[in-house]
Design a protein that fits this description.
With 107 residues, this protein is α+β, with helices and mostly antiparallel strands. Helices cover 33% and strands 9% of the residues. The protein has three helices and four strands.
């Protein structure tokens, strides 16, 4: 169960005027930095700090929620892969095509 995230997805949050309210350029840059840092901390926790590391495999703005406190929460772990460490690979193709790199799509 996830608490209500009043700002919705990162995608809708960045597109809406909510994120720009009061928006001097410096505060807008600070907001972007804070959101990016939040996502990076989430991924670092999943990859390095969990007892059994996990790869999300479908990270996109629609799967990042922004709470009323400004903190981000990752959602939609349906394609995630557990216990990835050492020489184990996650080689299957999955995720949203619009967010895949061209190199992967050309395979």
């Amino acid at each position: 169960v996830l608490e209500f995230c009043s700002h919705g997805s990162l995608s809708s949050y960045l597109k809406s005027g909510v994120a720009r309210a009061g928006g001097a350029a410096s505060s807008w840059d600070t907001l972007h930095h804070g959101l990016a840092l939040g996502v990076a901390k989430c991924l670092s926790y999943l990859h390095h700090d969990m007892k059994e590391p996990l790869i999300h495999r479908d990270l996109k703005p629609e799967n990042v929620l922004v709470g009323g406190d400004g903190y981000v929460r990752l959602t939609d772990f349906g394609l995630s892969k557990e216990n990835i460490s050492g020489t184990k690979d996650a080689t299957s193709l999955c995720g949203t095509a619009e967010y895949l790199s061209p190199e992967i799509l050309q395979r």
